[in-house]
Amino acid sequence: MEGRDTLILMPTGSGKSLCYQLPGLALEGVTVVVSPLISLAEDQAKHIRELGCQAAILNSSKSAKQLREFHQDIQSGKAEFVFTTPERLQQSDLCQLLSEVGVDLFVIDEAHCVCQWGHDFRPDYLCLHYARERLGNPPTLAMTATASPQAIDQIVRSLKLCDPAIVATGTLRPNLRLSVMPSSGDVEKERQLRALLCDGSDLIANEPAIVYCATINTVERLHSQLANLRMPTLAYHGRMKKAARIASQEAFTNGPPAVMFATNAFGLGIDKPNIRRVIHHDIPGSLEAYYQEFGRAGRDGELAACTLLYDREDLRLQKLFAGGSLDSSQLRTAHHTLIQGAHRYGDETGSVALKDLKPISPLGTQTLKNCFQHLASAGLMAPSGRGRWTCLADKIDHEATDRLADESRLRSEHRRIALDQIVQYAESTECRWWRIANHFATQDEQVASACCCDNCQTHAINVA
After folding, report:
1. Among the three residues 102, 135, 168, which one is the final residue of a domain in this structure?
2. Domain containing 69 — which CATH number?
3. CB contact set of 328 (below 8 Å; sequence gap of 6+)
4. Banded pLDDT at 422 (limits 50, 70, 90)
5. Which pTM value belongs to this model?
6. Are residues 245 and 377 in the same domain?
7. Contacts of 295 (CB under 8 A, 6+ apart)
């Protein structure tokens, strides 16, 4: 309300939405909310409308007619809240319209996506500070469930927040029972998984559950092998057709209690309060990712079980995901490739499809895409939607690409460190909630003496 950039870290289900809804109603201009998922924006806009306020939604799911109507609502001042995506904000006509009506608050929901997705598959997250400039540099509110000190620094740098107020309400979710089960190989994991999902205790019997898997193949295999559970089983991953994903999500959210086998593509923005169990079939890449994912359990405040099946062999896959870094020459080659491709294959705006560059690029498609994403983070090029890219600088110097290469190496090292941290968590005999609070620098947070994590329960039994 004072016009200061702010970063808030509040656990899932604790009311982050109120932090922009109330100021948005009190301030004069439009509140722009950037959401990573279309379903999340739809749900937030629905809640806004139920409060009697007008909200416009601008994303790829809307028809041309709907978009025109929403543009008219914005222009007339009827829409108090505008929900959109990072990709849509790259369109200069939208930024122009919003800047003309006046933006009083710029909101980045699920701000951890800036770190986790920006350099992987949503490069537009790296360009949000350019959109903010075109909107007139309104005060920015970034929101996430939690972030480590390093992730906070990355969010602040990427969004170019100015001396932000950082508000953290803690990480502890005492209703979530954390445990780690040592495992060895797929056969044992399947046995453990079946036993967990058939647990007849009053805590989780016949209640909704999510099983997170590291790969699409694992999702499909488990969905097939465990199809004979007493509860319905569902699957969700990024290669499913859109209609199938929507149907699976709808069945889990509104249908009878079911088990969802999914990659980490599932869960963001899922407002289902009674998920009683979250199981990680494979070790995640970081404590941040793990906290975000198991935090989807027990949003109603009732007890829920969060279990990690830990097999050290899984680390090979995560180390592969962590990947390598890019060097300066690759970045310059990618920039030159885009310029040449724009001359040969570009449209009237100068944008060119990534797939059209394959014949003229000495780099592989994935490496070329990674280079483009890094160059976009420096404002040297920009995604144009539907796999197309536009060059924003005709020339780049060695200093710029050397700096980006150094940043790439640093990110790669951070991913390796993050993997080491989740391994330390899995192998620790200390209170698991204490380990999480320590990681997120909230050591002063009071962990209940009656903590129900597996390590604390074991200690209590041994003492007795």
Report:
1. 168
2. 3.40.50.300
3. 398, 401, 402, 404, 405
4. very high
5. 0.80
6. no
7. 11, 12, 145, 173, 176
Backbone phi and psi for residue 180, each to the nearest 5 degrees, phi listed first:
-125, 130
364: tokens are: 């592989």
CA gyration radius for the chain?
23
Q: How far is CA 454 from CA 60, 381, 450, in A?
A: 45, 49, 11
In residues, how long is the chain?
A: 464
Q: How many domains does the chain have?
A: 4
Q: Let me know if residue 77 belongs to a domain.
A: yes
Structure tokens at 6: 């702010």
| pLDDT grade for 23, boundaries at 50, 70 and 90 | very high
Burial 338-350 (b: 16+ CB within 10 A, else e): bbebbeeebeeeb
45 and 74, same domain (yes or no): yes
Calculate mean pLDDT across residues 404-427. Answer: 87
Are 285 and 120 in contact, with CB atoms under 8 Å apart? no
Can you give the residue range of the structural domain that contains 279? 176-319
Same domain as 210, residue 146 = no
Token representation of residue 38: 């279309």
Half-sphere exposure of residue 80: CA atoms within 13 angstroms, side-chain side: 16
Residues 47 and 161 in one domain: yes
The torsion angles phi and psi of 272, rounded to 5 degrees, stand at: -120, 105
Question: Which pLDDT score is estimated for 62?
Answer: 77
